[in-house]
Design brief:
With 151 residues, the chain is of the alpha+beta class. Helices cover 27% and strands 17% of the residues. It starts with a strand and ends with a strand.
């Protein structure tokens, strides 16, 4: 699912309705964030194999939405932040998250976004958004975020 509006960060998500009763309408409220310094979103549809930092082909659609946002707003500078769960060593997770963030930046540069508008930063297992005690929590912690540094 993708939601887009001029002047706002886009929103993408990937979810299943398998468990949802088809006789009941499914509703999801999407609060869009205005384009502003420090605004950030999780890029839900960026995919990597476990312990790898090569972008999977399924990531292209989401990445191209980011390319379009950056081309439509040519003064925006952003940070791509990579995060991992807590499986593995701190050092390995730091390196993996940095390489994943760099992979996203490399894709953006290949699509014509100037490197001086982009920063890649790996945060490893720091700043978890969920528990690392469940697979669902670990999956939420493995994320790629983009944050607007300046407009």
């Amino acid at each position: 699912m993708h939601v887009n509006r001029k002047g706002y960060l886009f929103y993408s998500d990937n979810f299943s309705l398998k468990e949802h009763n088809p006789g009941i309408p499914y509703e999801k409220n999407i609060p869009l964030q205005p384009l502003a310094a420090n605004a950030s979103i999780v890029l839900h549809n960026i995919f990597f194999d476990s312990k790898q930092y090569n972008l999977k082909p399924e990531s292209v659609t989401e990445l191209n939405k980011l390319v379009n946002l950056l081309k439509d707003n040519p003064t925006i500078k952003i940070e791509i932040a990579g995060y991992t769960d807590n499986v593995g060593t701190d050092k390995d997770n730091q390196l993996l998250s940095q390489n994943r963030a760099k992979a996203v930046v490399s894709y953006l540069v290949e699509k014509g976004i100037p490197l001086d508008r982009l920063t890649a930063k790996g945060y490893g297992e720091n700043d978890p958004v969920a528990t690392n005690d469940t697979e669902e929590g670990r999956a939420a912690n493995r994320r790629t975020v983009f944050r607007i540094i300046s407009l």
